[in-house]
Amino acid sequence: MLYKRNEYFRYTFEEPFEATFRLKKEASETSPEEISKKGKCLMIDISPNGVKMYSELFIAIDQLNHVELQFKIDETPIQIDGEFIWSHRKKVGFEYGVRLMGDEESEKLIISELKNRRKKELELKK
Predict the structure, then answer these.
(1) Record's InterPro entries (predicted)?
(2) What pTM was computed for the model?
(3) Domain of 113, in residue numbers
C-alpha cells in the first residue's frame, strides 16, 4: 500500500451515518452522462480525499467506477464525485473505498465539518 504524504488524517465514525450515492456512467461521443437512482449507504470513515462506505448493494466497480456521494457530516450538505478504488465482501453487504474528486475548497469543508462534529460529540460526553 502506498503511503500518502498529503493525506491529513482519516476519521472513523463511532456510529456510521447514512448517506446516499448515485452511480455515474461517463459521457461519450455517442451517449450523454447517465446517473442511476439513489442508493443508501453508511459512511464508515472519511478523510479529505476519500471515504470508506458500506452498502448492501453489489456494485461492479470494474464497470461502474464513478459515483456521486451526498452526505452531511455535521450541518452542511455535501455532494461530491468520486471513484471506487476497492471493494470487500462482508457477511452481509459490501465495503467500498472511494477516492473523492474534490478540490481544495471541498477538502476544507470536510475538515471543518469534521471539527464541528467532533466538538459536539465531545460536549455530549461531558
Answers:
(1) PilZ_domain
(2) 0.84
(3) 16-125
